[in-house]
Each structure stands twice: as C-alpha cells, then as structure tokens.
Amino acid sequence: MSSHLGKPKSVSQFFSFVLTCHLFLLIRFIHSSPPENPIKCSSKNNSNCTVTNSLGVFPDRAICKVSNAIYPQAEQELIAAVAMASMNKIKVKVATRYSHSLPKLVCPDESPNGNLLISTMNLNRTLSIDNSTMIMTVESGVLLRDVISKAAKVGLALPASPYWWGLTIGGMISTGAHGSTLWGNGSYVHDYVIGLRIVTPASPEEGYAKVRVLDNNHPDIKAAKLSLGVVGVISQVTLKLQPLFKRSLTIVREDDSDLATRATTFGKEHEFGDITWYPYQRRALYRLDDRVSINTSGNGLSDFTGFRSTLTPALAAETQEAIGDANGKCISARVTTFGLRITGFGYTNDGNLFTGYPIVGYQNRLQASGSCMDSSSDNLITSCAWDPRIRGNFYHQTAVNLPLSKVKNFIEDVQKLRDLVPEAFCGLELGNGILMRYIKGSNVYLGTEEDSIDFDITYYRSKNGSTPRLFQDILEEVEQIAVFKYAGIPHWGKNRNLGFIGAINKYKHAAEFLKVKESYDPTGVFSSKWTNQILGLDQSGVTIIKDGCALEGLCICSEDIHCAPRKGYVCRPGRIYTSARVCADVNRVDTADISITTLEEEEDLGFSDM
C-alpha cells in the first residue's frame, strides 16, 4: 500500500482527483430528474401494483405486490378507505411520497380479499399556522421542505429535523426521524408534535372506521406518534414551533485520538452539534453549531453535496468495490472527503459561494436540504445519487442508537478494529464516514429513552445479492458490536434485518405500545408479517436463513454456506468481539502497517483544511 494514500501518485489517480473536484463544482449548477413514485401499477385504475423503497430494493430483495393503491385527498376519503378495508378484512399499509424507509414497513401482507396501499402523496396541505400561538397543523403527507418554508414565511421555525427534506411529516414521526441536539425538546421530530388526528379501524356499529383526536394529555399519543404505521393512518399533525432564529456553524477537523471521550460531552456544548468520523483517516469533523442573535450578519444556506443533482454517467461507473480495488477505494475516499471539505459540504455563506467559516444563517436555510428532488425532469441526465432508474448508489445503511454511557467503549472497539485493518474503513468514507447525531431521550413508547448518539453508517451493497463485499467481515463485526455487545437500538426506518434481532426487548414500554396497538387495530388491518416480527408478535423472527443470507444481513452466519464459500468467504468469529459471527475472506492478506499522514503532513500534500 502507498505510504501517502492522500496524494495521487499516477496519471490515472491525478485525473481521478481533478475529475472529482470538477464534479463537486459542476453539480452545484445543474438541475435534476426528481425521484419517481415508489408505487407502480399496471392499470389505469391503480390496480395490480408494486411498491418499493427509495433504493428500489428491500433488504430481502422481495417484490411487494399490492392489489390496489389509492390517493386520498381529504380525511373523509381516508375514513372510507379504512372502513372498506376493515369491513372486508383487507391488509393495508401507508406509503409516503418517496418511501425513504428501507425495511418493509410499507409492504402489506397478501390476503384472500387482496391488499391495499394508501398513499399520502395528495394529503399535502398546510391547514393552519398561527404566528401568535406558534402552532401549525398540516396533513400527514406534507414534506419537511414545505413545513420548513411555510413556517419561515410567518417568522417561525421547526427546531429539529433530519437533514434530508424529502420526508413527509407522517413518515418522520412514525419511524422516529430526528436531527441532532440534546437541548430543549430534543432532536426527534415527534417531540414537537402536540396533536394528531389518526384514522383507525372501528366496530361495525361505528362504521368500521373512526377518527381519533389525540393531544399530549392523552396517554395513547405516546404510541400513536412513533407507531411504525401499525395503529392506523395519520391524517393530520399539529406542531409547536419556535420563533425563527439564526445559527452559526463551523466545521473543525481534528485527530480522532480523543474522539471516544469527547463524543460523550460534545453534544452538551453545542446545541446543534454533530460529528462525522473518518476512521481510516483517523479524523473527526466536529460541527460547532449554535444559535446566535437574529441581528448577526449572514444569510448562509445548506445545499448538501450528497443531496444535489448528480450526473448519471458518474453514478453508473463501475466502482472499485466491484473490481476488488481496496487501494483505489482508499484513494477515492481521500479525494472525495477533500472535495467535500473545500466546497464546504454544500454550505454557502450567501446562497451562492462558500468563502469560509463560520456559516451564519436562518434556521430554515440551514437545517435541511435536498435540491435533487426539486427540479423538473431532465430525462435522467441527472438525478438524486441513489435513484434506482439509473442504477445509482446502492447501499446498506446501519443506524444504531447507543446511550452516552456506552459511546466511549463502542468507539474504542471500532478504533481497535481500524488499527487491525485500516483499509476496511475506506468504503465508509466514500459515503462521508460515520455520522454521529445526538438524540435526547423521549417519552414515546418506541423511542430512545436515554440521551444517546445515533451512529449512521452507509456502505456499499452489491446489485447482486450473492456477491460479498470487500472487508465484509469487518463491517459485520462493527454492526454486531453495536447491536449486540452494546445493545444498540436500531433506527426503525433503516438497518438490515439482523439489526432488529431482539429489538423490541430493548424498550421498557413495549408492552404499553402493544396494548394501544391491540386497542386501535384488534384485527391487525395495519399489521404485516414484518411489523409482527420486529414487534416480537411473530415468533419466526426477523432473520431469513438460506444460502448466502449473511452477505446482506438477513441472518448472522452459523455455517459457511451462509456466506460465500465458493468465493472464499466463510463464517468466522469476530476479531475483537469474538461472539460475533462474520463472513471472512480466507484469501485476503491484511496490511495493518499503512502510514497515516498527520494533519501537518497533509498541509504539504494539499489535503489540509481550507
């Protein structure tokens, strides 16, 4: 391996570096083909349909077939749909505009009388917003982008949100979507919800469906906010906002030697702080992000590079992963992260140019972005990077919450693995490393109860489910350390199947949630095999045992056949967590003596902070 993987050492590497830098600049100015509807029907009356997620493939690669899909435009139409399904014992699921939950939460079971999808695409109106009370009511299909922009027009702000604005308010609260803060009400969107209207099945005497109106004084709202869609379909959401405010943020890059300790306190020092960790490079990016006076000069804007339009040919190129080029992945990771840094990760000081930190701007301009979904179609010349129509970025996503008391030990374990096989982590850095966001404990039944950090890891997934990844075993061990050694809680809208093994047992109030579920939907109209499995109601469990099942996290290997023995991948114990069982490449020779440049040395190589 090269002693300085940050520095291009051949003509091909040099041109890769130059091309990457130009692409970062070019995609700032191009339009995009927005994501398509995840529901596809073969007839004009929306029958004979399929539904998928934003990547076009569920974790188990199964096709979800649906008899009919409907697009209600008002609550009364929701009531009629639920009544019909309840009366006829038809299984129902709710689909959002872009279907960003990766597991099969959106897939209804097949039943003798068919199954039904209710799309909230047309439930997209803002119903009221009161500047004096700071209360906003919207339909459940309203996008985060529209919540943010309409609130800002009357001088209000949603204090916490995910960073991607292509999520609906109903989808966000139902799966526990969040931003990053331990301050105030916290980072969960549902902790800013003060009221819901939810349509549930009902008795024949009640017309088979009814609207339940819940506020924060009603105990059932602790189940209805974060419900995984199993208690009914949310019609309306009422939010408590705050006066529009300004933030000032600076991203500082430091050595990761004290990350394990510092991560436990950093979230208490900065209201909107987060950390991006590059384990291979031994670097951590600390986002120092706080409120400032509304009079502070600045009109900064977030347009995160990863959420911008991307040229289709750049996405379709064969990756180093596919050709087994570990060294190339490490070089590309350094070039990619360097390009992000010099362009400010998509932040601009005035909406046009990044001239340096701090970035000062209004909350609505900094809290989220997603410009790749906002343009008119350009015939797929450009798209969001993950768009399945152009075989875009295809990935697994492991997102696990660990209480602050366990964060130090987890990070130290990952660093021990990194020290053994540094290059195994280069693939993570192509996805911009490990994102660490702070979550304040919440009182909803299926939410994180303690102050914690969400570790969000995005990594390569092959288009072919039987193809193992480079360093498959190392990332599997990281995942199992988080989920099992430290009993991490999975993000309900992300993760592979194994991330949900025993998940429901990690919630102290799971029984209370299940009581509300049984009360609201006693016949299981809104339940499915998948939701019953993750809620512990289907004893078959979440794993799928078959040849190669461990390659995609459908199972934990116990036999070589669960990996890819013909390709040299067999089941072995973990390196430092020996209780783990991972698919290891017996033909791989690890080289742990790679020299990592110091921050000072990077200045001479041209990779220093700008």
From TrEMBL:
Domain FAD-binding PCMH-type: 55-244
Top-level taxon in the UniProt lineage: Eukaryota
Catalytic activity: L-gulono-1,4-lactone + O2 = L-ascorbate + H2O2 + H(+)
NCBIfam families on file: pln_FAD_oxido
Record-listed E.C. numbers: 1.1.3.8
One GO MF term: L-gulonolactone oxidase activity
Signal peptide: 1-32
Pathway as given in its UniProt record: Cofactor biosynthesis; L-ascorbate biosynthesis
Keyword annotations from UniProtKB, A to Z: Ascorbate biosynthesis, Oxidoreductase, Signal
A single BP term in Gene Ontology: L-ascorbic acid biosynthetic process
Recorded family membership: Belongs to the oxygen-dependent FAD-linked oxidoreductase family.
Entry protein name: L-gulonolactone oxidase
One Gene Ontology term, aspect cellular component: membrane
